Amino acid sequence: MALLIDGKQISAQIKEELKEEVGKMTERGTTVTLAVILVGEDPASCVYVRNKKRACEYIGIRSISCELPAKTTQEELLSVIKGYNEDDSVDGILVQLPLPEHINEDAVIEAIDPKKDVDGFHPQSVGALWIGKPGFVSCTPAGIIQLLKRSGVEIEGRECVVVGRSNIVGKPMAQLLLRENGTVTICHSRTKNLPEVCRRADILVCAIGKPKFFTKDYVKPGAAVIDVGIHRNAENKLCGDVDFADVEPVAGAITPVPGGVGPMTIAMLMENCVEAARRKESLK
Ligand code: NDP
To answer: How far apart, in whole angstroms, are the C-alpha atoms of residue 62 and residue 65?
Structure first.
């Protein structure tokens, strides 16, 4: 039976550690502040923002939010970001994506001061990751590294296969595994012989957005399987990119959906906010 990698428990542990650290920062007179910007009323985005604010409250991070109507212009949004960039009391800025269609997401991401880019999406943060300089890392892949490390899954020297090459998951995931000295292969929709390539993996990260796509035919016995996908099936139940029931008997370790990668994303956002405040303190 595979080891179940418990994202709920690991994310709770990270939040406890951060809560303790933020408590000490507060005693030193440092307040950690996250500014959250939401444009429009997309129901899923409203839930994500609410969960992020709740996590801040639990840890002791001050959250300020700016909720703008869907018809907000790009210039208006950029001016809100400029205000937070210039406000020394704000450590992190998060613009909830997706944005309404008339707003250019790249322009918005690029407007955020990289020192406050707690989502890690700014081109400067992405570049810093690739050349090994300090910068913020995209939360979902950063959370996966924590899941592996805290579950005792060795990365160094092992074959890692990442399926999916998006800017927020696949590419930073591959780079982080490389930074941990894994031997990394990135696969995508044009990869030939995908099951064969996946079966080389000691660590297989599945991030393609296709429900239950990965069966045991893609998994080497004993491999650690990380399922990034989130889908709702016909019965409104959550499932991932991995066919859990089929893969679990052959895997060495596996993340469930829900309760695997999902809870780690907010925990790592909180970690990035605290990191921004640590950097601010180190400059004092
Ligand atoms: P994208 O749609 O941006 O990227 C999907 C990637 O998968 C692309 O690189 C695509 O290849 C590749 N792909 C698609 N079909 C196949 C296939 N049949 N074989 C091989 N590769 C394929 O998705 P994201 O990276 O944003 O997200 C992936 C999944 O993770 C989604 O289910 C999403 O909901 C979930 N997610 C979960 C998060 C969490 O917190 N748990 C956070 C973020 C995402 P190509 O480039 O060639 O088109």
So the answer is: 10
